[in-house]
Fold these 2 entries.
Entry 1:
Amino acid sequence: MRNESAPPSLLGLSRDGLTALVSEWSFKAIHARSIWRHLHAYGRTDFGTLGGLPAGLIDRLSLSTTASWLGIARDTESRDGFTRKYLLQLDDGKQIETVLMRYAGRVTACVSTQAGCAMGCVFCATGQMGFARHLTTAEIVAQALHVSRVLAASTGERLRNLVLMGMGEPLHNYDATIAATHILGDTAGLALSPARMTLSTVGVVPGIVRLADDREPVSLAVSLHGATQEARAAMVPVAKAWPLDVLMEACRYYCDTMDRHIFYEWTLIEGANDRPEDAHALGRLLERQRAHVNLIPLNPTDGYGGLPTTPHAARQFQSVLAEYGLPSTVRQRRGIDIAAGCGQLASAR
Ligand code: SAH
Ligand code: SF4
């Protein structure tokens, strides 16, 4: 069980929230900025070494808040040399996975937003394990800071890209997830550009509409996998709650309101949704929409027997999409040997 009366984590506070707390304790607001930079820009919690901080404030911080990093339960590196996966320990004993990926000279952190997932997509290991709980803002922020600290201590690179595509459905945990993107985008901290933070959703319609209404600047990816209601619902159970036509209406609303495109994710499964007729159906669905299609050859999971598409079928799929003016990318398969690929993240508890 989580201790509900545990002191709040500093990692879950916005800069304004931290400033308010420091002022509430009757210390000068200016100290909040030093604490914030120490935490978020340098990944340090040893406030005692920070010159200029009043001793009373340091005591108050250690008494009334926590700022602990997530413990590493396991650290595995893929033979591909580009992918590293961390099994991270939460305070209540639950575990989550976070992935560090390198692609075309870029480093990306793939972070989780929930322990498990309630959405039950048939081919996804996280869905197969079921839902444990939402992650807090602090736990989402801590994953990005973990990757940033690993980079700082090894290659010295700066983390610039983040995908909310790890375990869980980010729009099922909207408030904590969005608060985390604000903290990670804060220019006095990690300063991730919102355009380089991509949130991927299985199609939680109220969440998509809210992102648009709130003008949230993160990039949006929507997982489709099927271009008819029937085909999609067979793979994605929540399609019954938010049918395809309702989802597409929300996507059009998002694109119009935000004046930007959406990435559509399509897991390519041999013989199931990788045939030319599937590509034509997707082409018709997205024709004349601002869209980029990311094609992900199926990664293996214990609970699903389908096979990944072949490179030939994937190329053919792309050329059909091109007939509809739709740009697409086939995702490189990475980290499969350590189960760090899309849809492979899971934990035993
Ligand atoms: N819950 C969100 C984000 C996490 S899943 C979502 O569903 O969009 C991230 C991506 O991995 C999604 O596009 C999802 O459809 C895809 N995925 C899930 N299982 C997969 C598998 N076995 N192989 C390839 N991609 C998979
Ligand atoms: Fe959840 Fe996404 Fe996996 Fe579906 S694909 S079960 S929404 S994590």
Entry 2:
Amino acid sequence: MQNKYTTYILNEQKLDNYNLLLNETLFHNANGYIGVRSVFEEGYPDGFESIRGQYINGFYDFSQMKQAENLYGLTQEKQTMLNIADTQSIILHLEDEKFSMFEGKVLDSIRWVDMEKGVTGRYVQWRSPKGKEIELTIIRMTSFHQLTLFTTSYEVKPLNFSGEITIESSHDGNVLNYTDCNDPRVADDGIRYLTPISCEIKKGASYITSKTTKSNCTITSCVKNILLQDHERQFTIDNNNAICQMTTEANLGGTIKLIKYAVFCDSIRYEDCREQAGVELEKALSTSLESLYKKQEDYLSVYWNNCDVKIEGDDELSRAMHYNLYQLIQSVGKDEHSNIAPKGLSGEGYEGHYFWDTEMYIEPFFTVTNPSITKNLINYRFSILEMAKENARILGHSKGALYPWRTIMGKECSGYFPAGSAQYHINGDIAYSIIAYYLATKDLSLLKEKGGEIIFETARLWMDTGNFHNDIFYINDITGPDEYTCIVNNNYYTNVIAQYHLNWAVKVYDLLKNTEIFDELVNKIDLKFEEIEDFHAAADAMYLAYDSKLKINPQDDSFLQKRRLDLQKIPKDKFPLLLYYHPLHLYRHQVCKQPDTIMAHFIIEDVQSLETMRNSYDYYEEITTHDSSLSDCIFGIMAAKLGMEEKSFDYFCHSAKLDLKDKHKNTKHGIHTANMGGNYMAIVYGFGGFRLKEEGIFFAPILPVKWVSYQFKISYEDSRIIIIVKEDICCFRLEHGSAKTIHVYDKIYHLKDMLIINRRYNKEERS
Ligand code: BGC
């Protein structure tokens, strides 16, 4: 166990519902395919709450979505990521006593996440009520090398006795999803989605195959227990729960070691998932656990080498940053059947749906560190393009595609359309992310094969949603990112991203015009040159609201006419407002859940003056609750851009530890992946002033006064650049690849090997 910033260690706190649930999330294991919450192997006594979950990314069932008034086109059915067979349970008997953290005496208890090794650990020293003392060391891993595999190594060391030990390891097919009827961010239906259809023992392993009720998906899980000492073994199957009981003699000073292999295969990825589970188990057993650990570490060493951010001068923040980036690689889907959910694979908040969080908060990290992961996320969007077209038809559009606001398999899942389906900006967000991928990599192949088609089909939708009126292009009756203001006209964020999107649709058309796929593509989607001309004209004529009195961009046409909500007068326990105020009350006030215009100023900065951005910042900050975890990081980034370094740092300190300190009081439902991507952006785009544009890459580093230095890396085209920011200099080093032109503090430099540039001082350092 290491005690540096790559390991997050926790001395066990009070064993109450709050800590147990929180730590189930914080210490979960995931690899982008499987996610396992960190429930104690031996479970909790009755009366304690647990969200005992194991999930597969993108594995779902449908359930009915009741609409009180069945208006045309409202979502009737949603998807839910399912809790799958439980393979966590290991119960330890020391003769007639059962190990439990809630009985006897816990002499020592530590949990940790080792982010270099890619494992979680649990160490317990325990004295039983009758005085037997043991040491338990449990290591869990969801393998990056073999995505279907979850391993638990369970070691028992008797400290003051020799005697019989019995271990009961179970594999239980009876599972339900978690529900909470008081929180709209969690499901409330309590449906049994997954039914076991077989539970059997084959070659010493248990196999449970279960089927979903509606989506016609199947999953097989397979468990094999290997106890390294001589032992007696007995299998029982009780109501689709396969229990393997192993009894052995423990000797004082010796160690009993069990390795529990669990593999999962689902019918979305595998034709015959039962057979494949057998193949995957054999594959796992054919290598030693040590070599699986080594492969895990190797995988992560490449990952960290691509993306690590180092902060000198604050180990706690450094560790928090590391934790955030670790959770992103744990959470992100590694194939085109999956994406990254707001809670990753750590819990059931938002039911495992995918949102715009992917494109605007998480891809900006992967695109400049591990672009192949972004490519994969774009492939997923392409795989649901046909459903996005169907979605557009449901909403009355005769042409083009509208991506669902939240989904797993491609169909819209948002039940409340004003704050859901109406967020048409998701089309612009997806296009924006494809363009960013292209700008960072100059990889035309993605545009040719998939990206171009997505950009054109989604651009078409703006033409049908908006319209020219007196030569100006308006977009009415949509919702912007701020979910406390719904169904508005000319939301600034939406209009500006639509303009960017339409302009780029024209550029992509030109980029692809002379390539071999052009004719086939335009024929496939029946794209006419006149449409491209219309895109151009609409972008040119796009209405971007500006208030000349306040010198700000109004969030939308009616926003400034509304009464301001005085946030200071609202009691602290009435936040987040969405849990305590009727939506209409919020919509009729100037109050924001999250950045909207400020987000637009961050992502598309060149269409407004600094003065407008500064005034807008001051204006919106006063009325923003930050009830969404997507908020702080963007306010922090823009504070850095606008010269408010201290404020920027405060926002960062808050958001960097949002989950580790449970600042939103809902980490028990899962981590906040968008915020985690946002924290990367806070350092790189905020303090580092990094921007990725058509004209190249830009930096304007500042140094938080409490730090000695920080560094990060950017992959750009064929090169990787290391950026180190210190007190009086910033250093740009080409780690590999060809020389690059870079922009630093508005000047252009040629980076061949290394560049050292005097740092522009922060405002408070100067004063
Ligand atoms: C935010 C959305 C976000 C969703 C999932 C909501 O609270 O308002 O912007 O996409 O959470 O993270």
